[in-house]
Amino acid sequence: MAKTTDPLAVPAPSFWRDPDKRAIVYQGLVLAVIGWLVYAMVSNTANNMEAQGLASGFGFLKSSAGFGIISTPFVPYTEEASYFVVFLVGLVNTVIVAFVGCVLALFLGFFIGIARLSKNWLVQKIATFYIELFRNVPLLLQILFWYSAVLKPLPGPRELHEKGEEVFFSINNRGIIFAEPVGQPGFENVWYALFAAIVVAWLVSKLAAVRQMRTGKQFPSFAVGLLLIVGLPLVTYFALGRPLDMVPAEMSRFALSGGVTIIPEFVALLLALVIYTAAYIAEIVRSGIQAVSHGQTEAASALGVKPSHRMRLVVVPQAMRVIVPPLTSQFLNLTKNSSLATAIAYPDLFSVFAGTTLNQTGQAVEIMAMTLAVYLTLSLLTSGFMNWYNSRIALVER
Amino acid sequence: MATTDQYSGGGIVNAGDLPDKPAPIRTDGAIAWMRDNLFDGVSNTLFSLVAFALVLYVLPPALGWLIFNANWSGGAEACRINPDAACWPFVGARWEQFLYGFYEKSERWRLNIILAVLALGIAWLVWEKAPARKFAALFMLSVFPVFAFIMMYGNETLGLPIVDTPQWGGFTLTLVIALSGIVASMPLGILLALGRRSKMPVVSLLSTVFIEFWRGIPLVAVLFMATIMFPLFLPAGVTFDQLLRAVIGVSLFASAYMAEVVRGGLQAIPKGQYEGAMALGLPYPKMMRLIILPQALKIVIPGIVNTFIGLFKDTTLVLIIALFDLLGIVQASIADPNWSIKSVPYTGYVFVAISFWICCYGMARYSRYLEAKLHTGHER
After folding, report:
1. Phi-psi category of residue A259: left, alpha or beta, with phi > 0 → left and psi -120 to 50 → alpha
2. Residue B324 in contact with residue A148, Cβ under 8 Å?
3. Can you state the angle between helices B88-100 and B343-375, rounded to 10 degrees?
4. Is B317 in Cβ contact with A48 (below 8 Å)?
């Protein structure tokens, strides 16, 4: 068969002129360089660790820590506990401060963001002042300020209380101390009542929504739900004869013993994180609300929607679409910034694990790997949750 | 239809005079302004009163502490007598240390020259009618860092005695870390952004992993790694300066954020620009260098300034790895027993806060001005 050559056929490009083949060569080169870098790093690290006489591996996690930690909520901790327990303590402390911080910063940020848009001149100026002041001062400085300039100079327990005094509430340089609520037999019924109230309130709101869809009649499900959730446990509590004792702290010779203590490190870190992040969230909320076209507000007014409903049912749901993505990165920032705890020795993951444990054991690679894995996981979890929420509120287009 | 006495005789002409209408409410002047902006309705009035009480509660004591009752002259003795107000003599006695750190006293003129050139360079960048402005960015990104390093570190052949990095400190160290971080992170960030948008799967995956890794970990962890891990990664015997390690860590950290800013700019360039460049037969590097990046980088200048503000504030974290930036040196100074006065820590922190606030607020205003300026025209 004779070869027919198409005069219009494009000749196959030479090797270097073909983008596909060129791409393969480039990627191969990139892989080779990265691979060499990783190999050099790993082998250097292995050599260096051997030279320093360090065993690799996670065996050190089982050995006893031998140092005290000032605050170990939810995890039973003694000085004999292993380094793995130290890791857990740090993790719990980090998660607590990050979670509480995110929730409080969200509320404060929303409040200030709305105040920033207030028609009231004075309120608006105060909100602007707050935002510009706290956004432009380094967070570490704010943490140090709250800790060493505000909380540490407070009077000590000895100056405030006499020996043997029963203390129900006290703020001093050892932290915030209040009486510990201790449930008596029967108190668990209050928890059951609370749980039942939440279930019933949820059912009521679902039924109310169904009824409204069918008949158009509204039912004050939020007020009823709130009344149930607050009221039912309270009624149970009093019906059972108040089975809860407040056990006060007692002043011994030098310090208060007993009671519940919130350490000043936690308070300082939380205050600084919340105040700093709220300034950013306020700006996000402001720009989100401003992004909702004014025509939406006018249309709602024209339909006769009440001002309060106008905000809640028309403006805020649309603003949330603009607010949520940057809000997510603020939550991530807050979580990462909680590692600044190490500057004031709040026992978060960084401070007790990447700090004290690393200094004691010298297992830098393993400890940093675990610590970074935790932060990356927390980041992934937070952004996963916020993405789920974002997809729920995202614009549904036909 | 309701008729009134005024329409007598069914005509349309009024028989008598209508009663005078009240004078219109004033719409200008201080009182009208206050009524419209402060006392417009019951809830608004309540808000105003609460806000006013808040201002009254906070402002006079704060101003009194900062200015009116503050100690402005005299040494530690004056502050000890009046410990319930700011102690500015403390800052007056230490300001050279706050600015230059432990830098050799006889060599501080070198820092002054660097700071002066820096100020001139920034003015050149910012002032829109400056001559030869297109060279300003080039100068600041390439010539200035080399010049500043030689001046600061010293060079024996030029007759400048060497001042080693442990002596660097104070506000100049803050500037060194923040500026070298941003300058080094620019090219890396641009490369990463291009890599992330690349069609080559290996390149885009590696860039994405790199960016997300650095964005997912706190800067404290980066600085810890720079001090503890970095020496482990290097061959035995090779050591790096502590400051250089911190700067490398900060630069890698900043480059990930820079990459995301630049990527935003790249995404904002319409596809027609890419297609136009390709239709002209420009290869990829030329397309990026001549067509895409000049447009993309211009629209992300506000984003770059915002990244820089964040980096500038974050340089304070180096005090955790025992480098003495402005905050670190003030923190060390307030522990001086000669100044163990109640007001000194507050004064020190307030001084640092004011310094950072002025810098950051200034940059933020500039970034907002640029955003407003860039907002005209090509809005999509």
Report:
1. left
2. no
3. 60
4. no
8 A C-beta contact, residue A281 and residue A114? no
Contact residues, chain B, for A349 at CB < 8 Å: none
Provide the β-strand partners of residue A64. Answer: A82
Residue carrying structure tokens 């432009």: A136
Gyration radius of chain A's alpha carbons: 29
At B340 the three-state DSSP class reads coil
Q: Which residues from B are below 8 Å from A374, CB to CB?
A: none
ipTM: 0.86
Ranges of each domain in chain A: 20-51, 83-141+263-393, 181-245
Q: Distance between CA atoms of A309 and A296, rounded to whole angstroms?
A: 13
B42 to chain A, any CB pair closer than 8 A? The answer is no
Quick one: tokens of B154?
A: 């010293």
Q: Where are the domains of chain B?
A: 29-68, 81-103+163-375
Q: What is the pLDDT along chain B (380 residues), one digit of tens a residue?
A: 444 455 455 567 777 888 888 887 777 788 888 888 888 788 888 888 999 999 999 999 999 988 888 888 888 888 888 888 888 999 988 899 999 988 888 888 899 999 999 999 988 888 888 888 778 888 888 889 999 998 888 888 888 888 888 888 899 999 999 999 988 999 999 999 999 988 899 999 999 999 989 988 999 999 988 888 888 888 877 778 889 999 999 999 999 999 999 998 998 888 899 999 999 999 889 999 999 998 888 888 888 989 999 999 999 999 888 889 999 999 889 888 888 888 888 999 999 999 999 999 999 999 888 888 876 654 43
Domain B81-103+163-375 classification at class level:
mainly alpha
Task: Look at A30 and B202 and tell me if their CB atoms are within 8 Å.
Answer: yes
The pTM of the whole model exceeds 0.95: no
The CATH homologous superfamily to which domain A83-141+263-393 belongs is: MetI-like (1.10.3720.10)
A118:B47 CB<8 A: yes
Distance CA B8, CA B3 (A): 10
Q: Across the interface, do B202 and A27 touch by the CB < 8 Å criterion? A: yes
What's the number of CA atoms in the CB half-sphere (13 Å) around residue B106? 5
The H or E element spanning position A180 is strand A180-183
Residues in Cβ contact with A317 at an 8 Å cutoff, skipping those fewer than 6 apart: A393
Round to whole Å and give the CA distance between B27 and A149: 48
Exposure of A321 by Cβ count < 10 A (0-12 exposed, 13-18 middle, 19+ buried)? middle
- Tell me the angle at which helices A188-215 and A221-239 cross, rounded to the nearest 10 degrees: 160
- Interface touch B51/A136, C-beta < 8 Å: no
Q: Which chain A residues are closer than 8 Å to B216 by Cβ?
A: 332, 336, 375-376, 379-380
Residues of B in contact with A340 (CB under 8 A): 218, 220, 317, 320
Contact A120 B345 (CB under 8 A): no
